[in-house]
Amino acid sequence: MRSSAILSAALAAVLAIGAKPATAQAQGSPPFDGIQVNLGNIFRTSTAQTRSISAENPTGEKGRGAMATKGTGEHAARDLGRGWKVSPFAMARPNTTITLAEIDGPGAIQQMWIAGPRIENMRFYILRFYWDGESDPSVEVPMGDLFACGWGKYCQINSLSVCVNPGSGLSCCWPMPFRKKAKITLESLDDRPSIIGYQVNYVLTKVPEDAACFHAQFRRVHKLPVKAEYVILDGVHGRGQYVGTYLAWEVHSTGWWGEGEIKFYLDGDREFPTICGTGTEDYFCGAYNFENHETHRYQAFSTPYTGMPQVLPPDRIYVPGQRFGLYRWHIPDPVRFEKDLKVTIQGLGWQSGGRYLPLEDDIASVAYWYQVEPHAKFPPLPDKAGLEIKPISVAPPAPPAKKTAK
Predict the structure, then answer these.
(1) Which end of the chain is more exposed for a tag (fewer CB within 10 A), N or C?
(2) What's the pLDDT score for residue 396?
(3) Which ranges of 296-396 does DSSP label H, i.e. alpha helix?
């Protein structure tokens, strides 16, 4: 009895000790800001205010949606009137910039969807995001590339932060907090006008003190110099974390092209990086050349964090001119930096004698990261000719060998 009583008392003491912090945490925990939403906390209430900007409510104001009497759908709605899809789209005219969203903070963009231009011309539509009144954009990327679909051809993407769905609907769920103001613009370099469908979903709420701002930067090299590493990102100064890579890669040599290593130079690294990968397909979480050893073709794939959803053309392998789209989201493993960051990748294949071959491929990229503002000004975006995607040119397959009569 005595030992039983002692055990019961000890158990009660342990439970009491465990209960006190939980009670204190429940009493002292800050209100849920409504920004960081997932399946584990979707049941929590918040004082955050949900808002949405589209062509049907361009300011996002409460109770101001579907009020238009003029717009891109007014002719179709002429028998129905106000409230019946009178203004479903914006119009992007050649060589102009339109503002898609302008929001007073504090708050956070939680999801964005956009569609409209012909997919083969999406390189000519430049999305820019500005945070807290800055004059230089924190995001400056062609529309398709920002959503990991940069080759002017549709590909299905089923990832956690980016989706591309039938009809070339582009969607992303990167959280984008801001304190004073958020602004999104779209510049058209196209020769034709295009309708633009879009929706920017956000919350107005207090932003955590340690929240950094979302950034994305596009780069392209038409022909990688011999023995030069392709620079995905450089010139970043401050504190933050690198969260994603998209590559649009066109090979110019026969054979396997993905032996190159990705390198992350952190906080003063110069000659040698802190993080060094072991191969391009390894970084994108594939192996052995992405080859399906039953079909002897590249195997396209799209998963929550990594993918090679685009192989053009899909029925060839190891031939010059093929194009690939690859993404890698560092959501469970962000690369954190305190002072500065540089990211490079090698173009590396094989040549005779089992020797590596430095490649001279056409590579475009988008780097995604969060950092504390202010940020360094981006390098100039390529001009229209530098952005253009030429028609794909792949050598035709060799004809089957003729059978000789016995």
Answers:
(1) C
(2) 75
(3) 384-387
Considering only CA atoms, which of 246, 249, 217 is closest in space to residue 328? 246
The number of domains in the chain is 2
> Quick one: 241 and 163 in the same domain?
no
Q: What gap in Å lies between CA 309 and CA 144, rounded to an integer?
A: 14
* 227-243 core/surface letters (b: 16 or more CB in 10 A; e: else): eebbbbbbebebbbebb
Residues 258 and 278 grouped into a single domain: yes
Beta strands in 45-161 (DSSP E): 49-54, 90-92, 96-104, 107-115, 125-131, 139-142, 157-158
Residue ranges, the chain, pLDDT below 70 = 1-28, 397-406
Q: Tell me the pairing of strands 162-165 and 176-178.
A: unpaired
CA distance 178 to 215: 12
Q: State the sign of the Cα–Cα–Cα–Cα dihedral 255, 256, 259, 264.
A: positive
**pLDDT given at position 7:** 39
Supply the pTM of this predicted model: 0.91
Domain residues for the domain of 161 are 33-211
Q: Are 100 and 186 in contact (CB under 8 A)?
A: yes
